[in-house]
Amino acid sequence: MRIHLDGVWKAYGEGPGQFWALRDAHLEVSSQDFLAIIGPSGSGKSTLLHVMGCLDLPTRGELFIDGEPATKKNDRELSHVRRNRIGFIFQQYYLNESMTALQNVLLPLELGKVKDRKRKAEEALDWVDLSTKRGSFPSELSGGEQQRVAIARALANGPEIVLADEPTGSLDSENGKKILETLIGLNREQKVGLVIVTHDAKVAACGTRRIEVRDGRIS
Amino acid sequence: MTIGGIAIGVATLFALLALSSGIEGALEREIGGLGAHILLLPIGCPYTMTLSLMQGADTAEFIPQEAVPQVRATDNVRATVPVVVGKAKVNGKLTSIYGTTEDIFLTKDWRTNDLSGAIVGSDVATKLKLKPGDRLSLDLYAEESVTVTTILDATGGRDDTFVFIPLAVAQKVLALEGKLSGILVQTTNLSKVTGTRYTLAKIPGVQAVPPSEVFDTLIGLFDSVKQTLILITGIAIVVGVLTTMNTMTMAVYERKREIGLLRALGSTRREVFRLFVSESVLVSLAGGVVGLALGYAASFLLPRTSGFGIQATPHFKLAYVGICLLVAVAVGTLSAIYPAMMAARTQPIRALREL
């Protein structure tokens, strides 16, 4: 899989209150890459990640998925990319509180009506060392465990690239380290492309490529 | 609360359908049960007179008994059944008595031809604990006594509530000697009923009315009441739609993060739309089922008369269950369209960020 941003601008709001979160961004990421995106808060790192993951479309410029312009794809095609080819990990985990760990991991598999989904979800939980917590609800798990459930959920569909938005931002250093090790293992062992947004220099140092975003511009 | 709102609308609809059908059926059965092709009634409102005849109620107007030979002599008349009805004390309890002659056997499918004593309807027999051979005391303006000859099988109609006795005895008890509440006429040739009706109408002090005309008028009156009730039911259903729409809209706001997450994980707009519509339909169906149960119970608790004094049992049909559940599904679908569209339009990142 190849994600390519060609002169992407992204604005929020309209009129005098309009704010440009991304300005003329050029970037290319492929499966197996480990890209770290750093920058101060509000610099446009997350917006960049969201545009790369087809969660938001550019205001100007073009986003290409395997050479095809994303703006030409309809909602079903973009949803298919998010469902089957990209995994998302968020700083706040965004787990469904009323579902167990296993049910949370099953969610994207059920959306995709994947065959043998229970086994796949259990395998994903095994991979993040949470096979014993599969029946636990998010409120019964520590922050680190919740983030590992979120990683398992991102992995369950066998994505080609995982986009992680400050995955260790809400964790203490010990749990942060474990999550980072898990993600690095994901990239090295499962050959899954990894894009991490972080403002932690140590995390950024683990990436094979690093870019910095300032005032919406990539440097 | 949403289920309750829908349940009230569906319950009202179900009870209305079952009761209307029951009342219409009862009217048809009662008027048909008179066994007459033409009713000869005193001059006055024919509908009030017919109902009095069916209910065994006292009336102020009467037909002179001298009219009977003229009726019998009319061409195409097969049976002439003189009738006098009214309330009298039967064994001390006020009961409808029905004085007639043995001509009544030509219009009734009873298993007796003996009107030498009293033929008692099943409800009266139960109420007064009567059996064949018992003596009945009749008292109002005069006191008479007759023997019970037959207890009729239950029909579910007005016959169950009458004590049928010889005409002369009834006239004496009610002080109506030489007077009749009405005459039931059966014709030989049904195709000539109209002609016979006009001939009979020429008899002084008498009006000739076909029961079908009375039935159509009473049904017409009932229909106008029914239409008002349908309007009220419609309002209840609209309230159900608005309540469900409000609940679903609130649900969309409350579940914005969940919707954002579903969209981020790859749900299409159509899938999110379907999710909310199907949830709404499920809630509405649950409301529909509760409504059916409430409507079933209510139809037994509400007054079971059409306003015409005819007892009617609610008539339940499978089709009514189907109609009510279809209405519930329609309520669920209609009320979910706008909130589901809102949910489907949710921008995933904006939804996740807002919370």
Concise overview:
The complex is a heterodimer of chains A (about 220) and B (about 350). By secondary structure, chain A is α/β, with parallel strands linked by helices. Chain A contains seven helices and ten strands.
Task: Please tell me about this protein's structure.
The complex is a heterodimer of chains A (219) and B (355). By secondary structure, chain A is of the alpha/beta class. Chain A is 34% helix and 26% strand. Chain A has seven helices and ten strands. Chain A has a six-stranded mixed sheet, with helices on both faces. A four-stranded antiparallel sheet of chain A has the order 2-1-4-5, with helices on one face. In chain A, helix 3 packs across helix 4, helix 3 packs parallel to helix 5 and helix 4 crosses helix 5. The longest helix of chain A has 17 residues. With 355 residues, chain B is of the alpha+beta class. Chain B is elongated and about 95 Å long. Helices cover 54% and strands 17% of the residues of chain B. Chain B has two domains: 162 residues, no CATH class; 172 residues, no CATH class. In chain B, strand 6 and strand 7 form a beta hairpin. The chains are: A alpha/beta (219), B alpha+beta (355). At the A-B interface, helix 2 and helix 3 of A face helix 8, helix 9 and helix 11 of B.
